[in-house]
Structures are given as C-alpha cells and as structure tokens.
Write a structure and sequence with these properties.
Diaminopimelate Epimerase, Chain A, domain 1, inorganic pyrophosphatase (n-terminal core), six-stranded mixed beta sheet, about 325 residues, 12 helices, globular, 2 domains, five-stranded parallel beta sheet, alpha/beta
Length: about 325
C-alpha cells in the first residue's frame, strides 16, 4: 500500500473517530486536527469524526474552516470511539480527553516532537518535519485534498515554522506549502492574521515582559519571570504570553531565551527558545517537559527564581562546551 493511503489505512473500518491534540492548542495542533477530520470524512464517507480540543485560540477562528465543529466540553463527546487519533502531542497532554484515548478501540499518534516516544497502537512521528501538519500531509492522497483541508494544513505549517523561518523548515516543507497554495486561498491574509496580528492585551503583556527581562551569561541568555499579577494588570490571559520567549530570543548576541510565566494555580509555565547552540529540549526534559532542540517547554512548581537559575546553569553547561563557530 502506498504512503498516500496510510491515513485511510489507519482509519480502517472505523465509523467513529476522535481527533485531538494537546492542551492549549496552537495553529499546528488545531490545523492538524481539522485537516485529519475533514480528510477522513471525505475519503471514508461512512466515518464520523469528532474534533476534541479544550480551547481554540481566537486568531484561528475564521482562518481555519469549521472551527465551530470543535468540541471543547468533555461531556459533549461520545462515550467511546472506534479510533482515537492523537496529533501534535503525546497522549499524556490530551487533557480532559485522555480517558477517551485509553478506552478507544484503536489508537494512533501522529507528531513531529522529538520528545514523543509514541503512545498509540500506530505511531507516525517524524522529528525532522517542521510541523505535525507536514507529517499528516505525507499520509494523505493529494487528490483527496480540497481547499478546506489545504487551508487547515497551511495554517499549521506556517505557525509551527515561524512562517518558514525556523531551522525545522526544509525543502520538503516548501514543496508541501507550494502544493497547498495550488488550492487558491489568500495565504497572505492568513499569515498576517494568524502569526503577526496581536490583541492589545497581548502586545501590552509582551511589553511588560520585555521590560523586566534579564540578560545573563554575557548576553547569550535572556530570561524573564512574569507573575500572574503582572499579566493580569495588562488585561492578558495565560494564552496571551505565547510568543514572548520567541521575541526575547531575537535579541542580538543571545542564543537562548527562557520565560517563566505564573499560571492561575501558582505554578510556572516555562517556554524556552534557542537560536541554534542550546538544545532547549534537554533543559525542558530535566523538568518533566519536552519539545524540540530550538523550542521546548515545561510546567513546574516552586520558586521561579530558583527554577530560572537551574535552567541558566544547564544552558551555561551547553554553551561553554559548544565548539566555537568559525
């Protein structure tokens, strides 16, 4: 059987399918879920897919089609599914939908995170891919991809590659994006709305974070501790802090950036970004998290200053042992 038929093969004779991703879903997660659901329903008319996500970011509504279909309430889902498709994450981060993964007749895991060891009966995990949507595309028959599926995949690809800026972007990433653009949608508008436009509150909290950021290790590391009180003073939500660590990493001379943002329950959500030398997935793994070499995260409890100091020491060890660039 050809690779193009793999997603249909995974579905098999399933009639009820749940498609879900990680808590606090981003563009890649939502796009991958939507594209998988639409594709399976088109290719397998007997199949009904439910998209299960705890929330949908505001910027994705209107840019990814049919987001009104997404079920955010566990009570709205079926009691059991023939197949549970977990995308862009390991099953451990499915949140309130995890029990449905465990009780499903069959399970599959499609992802690109190097920290994902695969928790499904079928696992398709490609750490070399720039996004989960890129992995999903390779499991589809291009002839079955329509405009709505193409838009969903494109949103995921552009958000997780930083509009093709991140090192995970490959020639294959561009080839897939080019194939999707053949479906004639306004990609420029999508990129602007999804990736660049920010709410006033998000811009304010980014400014507050940057004002309190610290330059460490001779400028090679930028850190920031953002309290819940600081965030709330800006009228921002926990989701509004997304993207701050990536902005911090754009500091000239910096290789690594770490943001510790306080959550409503008093824990600290740490977002780590690297420009190439530091493998932040290694640092995040030390605190029970994971991700990629250049983008990773974890949620920890304790004193934020101590946490950032520990992470600084781990980053320093990598930076000091790195071979100097010629």
């Amino acid at each position: 059987m050809s690779a193009a038929a793999d997603l249909i093969r995974i579905a098999g004779d399933a009639r009820t399918v749940a498609v879900s991703g990680h808590v606090r879903p981003d563009g890649d997660c939502v796009g991958c879920c939507m594209a998988a659901a639409l594709y399976l329903e088109k290719a397998c008319p007997q199949l009904k897919a439910d998209i299960l996500l705890e929330s949908v970011p505001e910027e994705l509504v209107g840019n990814i089609p049919y987001t009104e279909r997404i079920l955010t309430d566990r009570a709205a889902a079926r009691d059991q599914y023939d197949l549970f498709l977990c995308v862009d994450t390991a099953p451990e981060r499915l949140g309130c939908f995890r029990d449905l993964f465990d009780s499903a007749g069959r399970t599959a895991n499609i992802d690109h995170h190097i920290s994902n060891r695969g928790g499904g009966m079928v696992n398709v995990i490609d750490p070399a891919a720039g996004s989960a949507c890129e992995v999903l595309y390779t499991l589809m028959d291009p002839a079955q991809i329509d405009r709505d599926i193409a838009v969903s995949l494109y949103v995921g690809i552009v958000t997780d590659t930083g509009v093709f800026r991140y090192s995970s972007t490959s020639p294959e990433t561009h080839r897939i994006a080019a194939a999707l653009l053949e479906h004639d949608f306004d990609h420029a508008s999508i990129v602007r709305d999804v990736f660049y436009v920010k709410s006033f509150a998000r811009n304010k909290v980014m400014g507050a974070a940057l004002m309190s950021a610290q330059s460490r290790l001779g400028g090679r590391l930028i850190t920031c501790m953002l309290s819940a009180a600081q965030r709330e003073a800006c009228g921002a939500t926990e989701a509004d802090v997304d993207g701050i660590s990536a902005q911090m990493a754009l500091t000239r001379g910096a290789d690594c950036a770490i943001l510790a943002s306080e959550t409503a329950d008093g824990n600290w959500r740490c977002s780590l970004r690297s420009n190439g030398i530091t493998d932040v997935s290694v640092i995040a793994a030390q605190f029970g998290g994971g991700g990629h070499q250049r983008a990773a995260g974890c949620t920890v409890s304790g004193d934020a200053e101590d946490i950032l100091l520990e992470m600084e020491c781990l980053a320093a060890m990598q930076l000091e042992s790195a071979v100097p660039r010629i």
